[in-house]
Q: What sequence folds into this?
């Protein structure tokens, strides 16, 4: 089985645009980071346009499901629409904090928010072989003293919302519900979606 790394920004753009069926061709094992956001993918999807296809039944959150992972937690709640509510924060109060709520169809609000890394995590990422393509243009360096060059004052929390929307691609169908995340990560998003699938296998039946 092939393995593809860093698909989350592309997947976020597809989910945000409401795409349920696409053929993706890659020449390598990693999706290009481009400018560190979903912006270029979003622009390409908007330029190409969408074609209507067979309607796909949605997967609907019918009861509250909550999990904790590390320092964060995530909860799925019933809702009439597809929505994410994300908050960020760290133990160091000098680091950025904030919250954002948006419907998935409002994805354009967060599409251009770039990925980021804490200054304290740079060496760990380098030693693990991650982030080889990161630079000052596509990755925000977050420090306790000052974070420069932001596209938006709340770019950090916007990118966390982008990541959460991208991970909704794992649902495999249109999502109806609210994903609430505090101090989130891809692992945390995956954990709460897995808990949902395990608790309601009928909803997830093919």
A:
């Amino acid at each position: 089985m092939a393995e593809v790394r860093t698909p989350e920004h592309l997947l976020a753009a597809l989910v945000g645009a409401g795409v349920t069926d696409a053929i993706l061709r890659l020449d390598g094992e990693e999706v290009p980071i481009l400018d560190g956001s979903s912006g270029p993918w979003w622009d390409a999807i908007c330029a190409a346009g969408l074609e209507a296809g067979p309607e796909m039944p949605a997967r609907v959150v019918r009861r509250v499901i909550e999990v904790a992972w590390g320092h964060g937690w995530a909860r799925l709640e019933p809702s009439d629409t597809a929505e994410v509510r994300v908050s960020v924060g760290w133990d160091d109060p000098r680091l950025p904090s904030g919250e954002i709520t948006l419907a998935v169809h409002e994805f354009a609000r967060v599409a251009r928010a770039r990925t980021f890394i804490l200054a304290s995590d740079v060496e760990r990422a380098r030693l693990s072989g991650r982030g080889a393509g990161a630079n000052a243009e596509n990755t925000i360096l977050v420090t306790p003293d000052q974070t420069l060059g932001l596209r938006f004052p709340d770019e950090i929390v916007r990118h966390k919302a982008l990541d959460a929307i991208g991970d909704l691609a794992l649902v495999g169908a249109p999502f109806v519900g609210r994903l609430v995340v505090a101090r989130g990560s891809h692992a945390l998003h995956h954990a709460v979606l897995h808990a949902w699938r395990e608790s309601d296998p009928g909803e997830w039946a093919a």
User: Anything to note?
Assistant: Residues 83 and 104 are 5 Å apart (CA to CA). Helices lie at 8-16, 39-48, 122-127, 155-167, 186-199.
